[in-house]
């Protein structure tokens, strides 16, 4: 039995651990196997998905309201810390990171972001590490975006700015600069 009754309201943003932030669009009653069950209908705009969660199973499923801005700030501050020990083989660490991402807990998401972020522009990441990092960052940014009323991309950039993550090198910009330098040389010849 759940220890407390979660109170959700239509129009409220909620977090479902394995999907991220969604909006509670309505509460409906469905008849399943002859029983009437109240369902929370959650829309995930980004995934173009609708999820129905029985009200009685909401807490067990991990469904929760958005975290507070203060707790989100604490999570981001913890992501600024020193990366955790990397003594485990990658497969086990990746599994642990996956579990942390699917927990929906901002502090666990921050742990993944902290451990996998690039510390300098010369740091490289494996494909799988980068995918885990981006998923954890996106989940954090989803809540951050709703809390601070901004879009997801701006929220991701803001979090990375706060963390001091080096920006990717824009190779196209470098090519454009080279072309500009070459043009005057051609005119001089």
Q: Can you put this structure into words, describing what you see?
A:
The chain has 189 residues and is of the alpha+beta class. It has two domains: 13-65, Thrombin, subunit H (Beta Barrel); 69-166, Methane Monooxygenase Hydroxylase, Chain G, domain 1 (Up-down Bundle), CATH 1.20.58. 48% of the residues lie in helices and 19% in strands. The chain contains seven helices and five strands, in the order ββββαβαααααα. It has a five-stranded antiparallel sheet with strand order 4-3-2-1-5. α2 (69-79) runs parallel beside α4 (106-116) and α3 packs parallel to α5 (127-147). It is elongated, with a radius of gyration of 22 Å. Residues 170-189 have low confidence and may be disordered.
């Amino acid at each position: 039995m759940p220890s407390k009754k979660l109170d959700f309201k239509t129009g409220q943003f909620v977090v479902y651990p394995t999907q991220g932030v969604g909006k509670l669009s309505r509460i409906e009653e469905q008849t399943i196997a002859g029983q009437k069950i109240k369902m929370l209908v959650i829309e995930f705009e980004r995934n173009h998905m609708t999820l129905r969660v029985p009200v009685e199973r909401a807490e067990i499923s991990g469904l929760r309201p958005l975290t507070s801005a203060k707790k989100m700030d604490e999570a981001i501050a913890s992501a600024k810390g020193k990366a955790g020990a990397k003594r485990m083989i990658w497969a086990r660490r990746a599994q642990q990171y996956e579990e942390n991402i699917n927990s929906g807990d901002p502090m666990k998401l921050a742990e993944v972001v902290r451990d996998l972020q690039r510390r300098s522009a010369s740091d490289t990441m494996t494909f799988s590490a980068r995918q885990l990092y981006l998923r954890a960052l996106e989940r954090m940014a989803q809540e951050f975006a709703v809390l601070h009323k901004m879009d997801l991309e701006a929220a991701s950039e803001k979090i990375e700015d706060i963390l001091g993550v080096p920006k990717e090198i824009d190779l196209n910009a470098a090519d454009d600069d080279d072309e500009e330098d070459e043009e005057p040389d051609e005119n001089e010849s």
